[in-house]
Amino acid sequence: MTKKDIAEIKKLFSPKKCSIQRICGCYVDGEKNKKAEFGQAFLSLPEEEMFKYFEILKKNLSGSIGKNLMNLDFPLHSEEAGGTQEFLMRLRDSELKDETLLEEFYDKIIENYEFVGNYLILLIHDVYDVPGKTSDGIDMDDASDEIYDYILACICPVELSKPGLSYNAEENTFQNRVRDWVVGLPYTGFLFPAFNDRSTDIHSALYYSKDGEELRDGFVSELLGCALPLSAGGQKATFQTIVEEVLGEKCDLETVKNIHEKLTEMKEATKEEPEPLVLAKNEMKAILADSGAPNDKLEHFDEQFVETAGETAALLAANVMSTKTFEVKTPDVVIKVKPERTDLVETRQIDGLPCLVIRLDGDVTVNGIAVRPLPAQDEDDDSEKD
After folding, report:
1. What's the pTM value of the predicted model, to 2 decimals?
2. Which long-range contacts (CB under 8 A, 24 or more apart) does 360-364 make?
């Protein structure tokens, strides 16, 4: 799913657009016991409760694609009888009215979701009458040509509210606030089927994780039967490892600056594209070549890429390197430069020592205090020292 696809579904979680038919839930304690279950027509809820649920549902479709939101494809065997995708299809088609299927779904989550504390499993069923669009992107509500029938699941922490004082208006006093159990925003969840190109895609799902580095591979494998891609941090580490191993002793400041500039150019050129910029093996090899990597270093690129990332690995450009800043880091110094001014930083040999040189350009402040750059040293001064 693209940003536009996701945004279209998120817009449904509002009073004017809402078409959610049913909401169900199961409250689970820290010992993995079911404490309470419910199921009812969503539109029968009080308006105040609806808004709280809208906030949770929207959060479950928030974040960056490739970091918090993962497009997952179901393997073929999962669509056979007894497979994970086939089970989700039956759950969706039941409109969340089959108690046996719901219990099986809750049990799968409870068995495989590792969490310290209480949590709430929320599940909605919705039927979205997808409006047609004019050539200039305007919705035509009376020209729908497809129905998007889906379920969305959220797993939300349930925690005690913080202790404190509250004001009692009737008694005009401040009292110890009663602590109660509060449902937080979701840690994880999924949308099934996916909504790709404004159409139902039963072969895919969209997975959400609040923590982009804790994707819960085992949980996803058991519940959805899909393989997760590398986390954002894993993709960044893989990219860095490949660059360092391929370039070897040629991995210098200038080459890395060139790589950064090349990625910045590519991201700028594709910023209007619906799909995020992906770096597969061939794209990454081309970036290294364009950045000045020697041909002899690129001879073994393919095997090093496969060994590090895998044959079909694809790294998201947004995950592997920030194009918003250029950072140079030593054990004692960290320098951050605007990406368009990497020319201010270079390495030099001074008095036989490798040095990082930053050209002072414009006003300079130290701890907020304006300071003057060192004056240029006269040749006469140098001769006097001799």
Report:
1. 0.84
2. none
